[in-house]
C-alpha cells in the first residue's frame, strides 16, 4: 500500500542499514610469516595466534566498526559537501580545554568540503584581562559597556584568539599517518588556509536609556563579497567581534550579534552554536529537535523571567505588525535584504550597510544580541542561545544546532549521525505538516488517484478514504495538499502500518517523502510503537534505503494478516524504531540546563 515517489533526502540524511561484515582476506602462503617485520620499539606483541586470514578477532571487530561508521556517515559527508556553516563558539568554550579539539574537528570537516565562517567568543578573556588589571567588567542588559580599558582588553583578547586559531589550524593532519600511502607533494599542501580581516562594519551603540555604552558597537555591515571570495578559495574565514566604524574607530560588538548577522548576510546553510552545556527536556533527556514554532512557544513562556526572551517577543510581535505596513518593495534588493521568507508574518531582516531593522528604521534591540549578567549567571540556562537560534531561523537559515562543546567529538556526532548529540532548531522540518481534516479529502484523492490507476496503491472508495481520514497526515502549501501518508497503529502489537505515502508530481524530488516518513516515525514513537511495517509492490527500494527490511507475513499483526489481498503479491517490510529518533518537546517543565 506504499506509494511510489521521487523524494529527495531529508535535511538530516537518514542513514539506514547495518554495517556489512569485514571481508575476509585470502589466506597468506605458508612461507610468508604473519609479521614480515618485527614490531616497533615500545609496541607490546600480542600472544594470540593469528587466524589463517592474518587478522586477529579484535582487529576484525575494530575494522568492522570503522567500516560500519564510515558507511553510516557517507550520506552526511555527501550531503554537507559545499555547504556553508557559521560557527559561533562561546567564550567559555574558547577559554576552556576543549577548544583545540573543536578546531581539529573543524579542520577535518573543512577537508570534507564544508565551508566555515568561525566567530569566536571573547567575553571570558576580556573579563579576565580586566580583572588582572584591577578593573571591573560592566554590563547593561545584553551589552557590555566598553570604556577605554575594556576596549584595550577586547582588542588584546580578539588578537590572541585569532592567532591561536590560525596556529591550531595551520599544521593540517599528522604527516606520519599519511606516509604509508607514499610520499606525495600534495601532502604538504593540505594545511588549512585561515582568512581574517576587516569584514565587519559597525556603528556606536551610543546612549540608550541614559546609559553611555562607550566603544560598544552594533553590526552595520558584513563584507559578503570578500567573505565569499575567501570561502571559494578554500579558506576558513574567522570573523572577529571587533568592528570598524566609518569614522575609523574600533568598536567592540556582541559576538552573537556578529554571528547571526553573518549567517543572515551570507545566507548560510547552518548556524552552529557551540556552548558549554546541553538543553534537556522535562525527563532529563537531551532534546534533539525543536521546530521553530516550539522554540518560539518556549521562549514566550519565559518572557517574564528573561530580558532576552522578552526582547525576542517584542521584536517578533512588532515585526508581525510592521511587515504588513512595510512590505519589501523591489528596490529593497539594492540594499541586500537577507530576511528571505516570512513565517507567521515575521522575518528577521538584516540590511547590509544599515544593520538589523525592526520596521521603523532603527537598528539594534533585535533579540539576538545575547550577553550580560543574565547569560553570565545562566539563570535561564541556554534560553539566550535558543532565542538567537529562533531569530535566524525566522530569517531564512534552515537549521541551527546548539551543541555541547565539552563533549569530545560533539561536532562530528551532531553532523554525521541521524539524531545528533545536541539540539537542532529547524525552520522547515515539518512546516505545513498536520493531521488531515475532512476538507482535505479531495486533495488527498487528487494525489493518490494516479497511483491507484497504475496499481501502485490499493483502490479506496470515497467512503473508505473518509473512514480512514483520521489516520492520514498531509503537507499543505499555499492552501493545497502536496503530500500525504497514513499511519494505522496496532497498539496491542506495538506496531504501526505505513500506507499511502504519496507526493504530488510537481513537488517530487524536494524531500517531502522523507519529511512525511520522519513525521510518521516520530508520531509512532509518541504512541508507544516499537516498529513500523508496510506492504508494497513497486516501491521497495525507496523504503529499503530508509532502514526498512523485508520480512515474512507472519511478522505482521494477526488482525492485519486477515485483511491482506494475497492476489496483489505484495512484499512486506518492517523497521524497528529507536527511542533516540523522537525529538519530544514539552514547554511545561522544560529544563534549559
From TrEMBL:
EC number, as in UniProt: 2.3.1.1
One Gene Ontology cellular component annotation held by this UniProt entry: cytoplasm
Stretches of the chain forming a coiled coil according to its record: none
Catalytic reaction list: L-glutamate + acetyl-CoA = N-acetyl-L-glutamate + CoA + H(+)
Pathway: Amino-acid biosynthesis; L-arginine biosynthesis; N(2)-acetyl-L-ornithine from L-glutamate: step 1/4
Domain N-acetyltransferase: 431-579
A GO MF label: L-glutamate N-acetyltransferase activity
PROSITE patterns from the UniProt entry: GNAT (PS51186)
Enzyme class: transferase
One Pfam family linked to the record: Acetyltransf_1
Keyword annotations: Acyltransferase, Amino-acid biosynthesis, Arginine biosynthesis, Transferase
GO biological process: L-arginine biosynthetic process
HAMAP family: N_acetyl_glu_synth (MF_01105)
Similarity annotation: Belongs to the acetyltransferase family. ArgA subfamily.
UniProt protein name: amino-acid N-acetyltransferase
Origin species: Digitaria exilis
Amino acid at each position: 500500500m506504499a506509494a511510489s515517489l521521487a523524494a529527495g533526502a531529508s535535511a538530516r540524511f537518514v542513514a539506514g542499514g547495518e554495517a556489512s561484515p569485514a571481508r575476509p582476506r585470502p589466506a597468506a602462503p605458508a612461507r610468508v610469516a604473519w609479521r614480515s617485520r618485527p614490531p616497533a620499539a615500545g609496541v607490546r606483541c600480542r600472544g594470540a595466534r593469528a587466524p589463517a586470514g592474518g587478522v586477529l578477532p579484535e582487529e576484525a571487530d575494530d575494522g568492522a566498526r570503522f567500516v560500519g561508521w564510515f558507511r553510516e556517515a557517507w550520506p552526511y559527508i555527501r550531503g554537507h559537501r559545499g555547504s556553508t556553516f557559521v560557527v559561533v563558539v562561546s567564550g567559555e568554550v574558547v577559554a576552556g580545554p576543549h577548544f583545540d579539539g573543536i578546531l581539529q574537528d573543524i579542520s577535518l570537516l573543512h577537508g570534507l568540503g564544508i565551508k566555515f565562517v568561525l566567530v569566536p567568543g571573547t567575553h571570558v578573556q576580556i573579563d579576565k584581562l580586566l580583572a588582572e588589571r584591577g578593573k571591573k567588567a560592566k554590563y547593561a542588559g545584553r551589552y557590555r559597556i566598553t570604556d577605554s580599558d575594556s576596549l584595550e582588553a577586547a582588542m588584546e583578547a580578539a588578537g590572541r584568539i585569532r592567532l591561536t586559531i590560525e596556529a591550531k589550524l595551520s599544521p593540517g593532519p599528522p604527516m606520519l599517518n599519511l606516509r604509508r600511502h607514499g610520499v606525495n607533494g600534495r601532502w604538504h599542501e593540505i594545511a588549512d588556509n585561515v582568512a581574517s580581516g576587516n569584514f565587519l562594519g559597525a556603528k556606536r551603540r551610543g546612549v540608550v536609556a541614559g546609559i553611555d555604552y562607550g566603544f560598544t558597537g552594533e553590526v552595520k555591515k558584513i563584507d559578503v563579497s570578500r567573505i565569499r571570495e575567501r570561502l571559494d578559495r578554500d579558506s576558513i574565514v574567522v570573523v572577529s567581534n571587533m568592528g570598524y566604524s566609518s569614522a575609523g574607530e574600533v568598536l567592540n560588538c556582541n559576538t552573537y550579534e556578529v554571528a547571526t548577522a553573518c549567517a543572515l548576510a551570507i545566507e548560510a546553510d547552518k548556524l552552529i552554536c557551540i556552548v558549554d552545556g546541553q538543553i534537556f527536556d522535562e525527563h532529563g533527556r537531551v532534546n534533539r529537535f525543536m521546530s521553530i514554532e516550539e522554540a518560539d512557544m518556549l521562549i514566550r513562556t519565559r518572557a517574564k523571567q528573561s530580558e532576552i526572551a522578552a526582547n525576542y517577543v517584542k521584536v517578533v510581535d512588532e515585526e508581525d505588525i510592521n511587515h504588513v505596513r512595510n512590505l519589501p518593495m523591489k528596490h529593497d534588493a539594492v540594499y541586500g535584504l537577507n530576511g528571505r521568507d516570512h513565517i507567521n508574518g515575521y522575518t528577521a531582516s538584516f540590511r547590509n550597510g544599515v544593520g538589523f531593522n525592526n520596521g521603523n528604521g532603527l537598528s539594534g534591540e533585535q533579540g539576538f544580541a545575547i550577553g550580560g549578567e543574565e547569560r553570565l549567571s545562566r539563570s535561564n540556562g541556554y534560553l539566550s542561545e535558543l532565542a538567537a537560534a529562533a531569530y535566524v531561523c525566522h530569517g531564512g537559515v534552515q537549521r541551527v544546532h546548539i551543541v555541547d562543546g565539552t563533549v569530545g567529538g560533539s561536532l562530528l556526532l551532531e553532523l554525521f549521525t541521524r539524531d545528533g548529540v545536541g539540539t537542532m532548531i529547524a525552520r522547515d522540518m515539518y512546516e505545513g505538516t498536520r493531521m488531515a481534516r475532512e476538507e482535505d479529502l479531495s486533495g488527498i484523492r487528487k494525489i493518490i488517484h494516479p497511483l491507484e490507476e497504475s496499481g501502485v496503491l490499493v483502490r479506496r472508495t470515497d467512503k473508505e478514504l473518509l473512514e480512514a481520514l483520521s489516520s492520514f497526515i498531509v503537507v499543505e502549501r499555499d492552501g493545497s495538499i502536496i503530500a500525504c501518508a497514513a499511519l494505522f497503529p496496532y497498539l496491542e502489537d506495538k506496531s504501526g502500518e505505513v500506507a499511502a505515502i504519496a507526493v504530488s508530481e510537481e513537488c517530487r524530488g524536494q524531500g517531502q517523502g522523507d519529511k512525511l516518513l520522519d513525521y510518521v516515525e516520530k508520531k509512532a514513537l509518541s504512541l508507544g510503537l516499537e516498529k513500523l511495517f508496510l506492504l508494497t509492490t513497486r516501491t521497495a527500494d525507496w523504503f529499503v534505503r530508509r532502514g526498512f527490511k523485508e520480512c515474512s507475513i507472519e511478522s505482521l499483526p494477526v488482525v492485519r494478516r486477515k485483511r491482506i489481498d494475497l492476489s496483489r503479491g505484495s512484499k512486506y517490510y518492517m523497521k524497528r524504531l529507536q527511542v533516540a529518533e523522537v525529538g519530544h518537546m514539552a514547554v511545561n517543565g522544560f529544563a534549559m540546563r
